[in-house]
Amino acid sequence: MRVLVEADGGSRGNPGPAGCGAVVRDAAGAVLAERSRWLGTATNNVAEYEGLLAGLRAAAELGADEVEVRMDSKLVVEQLSGRWKIKHEALRALAERARELIADFDAVTFEWIPRASNAHADRLANEAMDTRADRDGGGEAAPGPATEQRIRPSGWNGATGSPTKLLLVRHGQTAMSIDRRYSGRGDVPLTELGEQQARAAAARVAGLDGVDGTAPVLASPLGRTRQTAEAVAAATGGELRFHDGLLETDFGAWEGLTFLEAAEAYPELHRSWLGDSTVEPPAGESLEAVFERVTAVRDEIVETWAGRTVIVVSHVTPIKALLRLGLGVGPALYYRLHLDLASLSIVEFYPDGNASVRLVNDISHLV
Fold first, then answer.
1. pLDDT for residue 174 is more than 90
2. Structural domain of residue 41, as residue ranges?
3. Residue 248: active-site member
4. Choosing from 68, 171, 280, 285, which is the catalytic residue?
5. pLDDT for 240-268, tens place per residue?
């Protein structure tokens, strides 16, 4: 996928209060993502580089392969195009971070544009300076206070109201996870350590705001998630329900194989599956199919428990799908996001279509 990144940054004082902004568009010019960031005290040049970094990260989250960067900063464009030397130490460090991000794409080009043609990114940068708040999809923390991300997921809209908060818990350890084997629909139990992890996760969830015995526990019906969910329900007092839509991916013929075994047995197909969410394992299910059914579960949860806290106990792929919905990003998230056993993540879905990812892969309760 080819995208256009428009980025800008500014400082009121140089150095002074600074902010940056970036917008990502598709080939037709439609906006795919916006980013803005309050930077604290910085120079104009630093802010312009930070705008570029924010835009490149957003493009990567959307799964872009090729990026066309347009900026009104002659300095950034010429330096990263290799035509100007970078003398300032701080800018050299920022340029190196930009090159690291650029290396992950198939192609990145740079074009200088007049400031008047970069009004969208300029507006986002000024909003960050005015409000001293961020609208961002992740990456390194910026100086100063931050507010949660609010992105409109596609295909879901509703009435205004309080968010529905989903507490996402991955199941504990199994014998399959010890050996790092594909574990989809096989019904394997937790190990002794897995049971300990489930109890620790349950205690953590029970202490969170909004968990007072009224929060339902919705889980995949497989043994490992059932055991984990039972521990959560016992600790929280919530009603336990099971939902087939939260099942793990059906890995088909790869079920029970290690990564290497699957790669050796199905070299071309396995290689394609690692980069294309629409590819299916033999007699199995694509990641995109999982995303579709999890989207339906999300819609059902928001409709049934609007404005409430719901505990979801599931597997790696369904939890990633819910986080993908919250972040409003593409399928690259499946391959770049790691989720530990018995980890906790939190995402909120607002009835106006906005979302806020509050926490990802927290395992502090396992330490």
1. yes
2. 2-131
3. yes
4. 171
5. 999 999 999 999 999 999 999 999 999 99
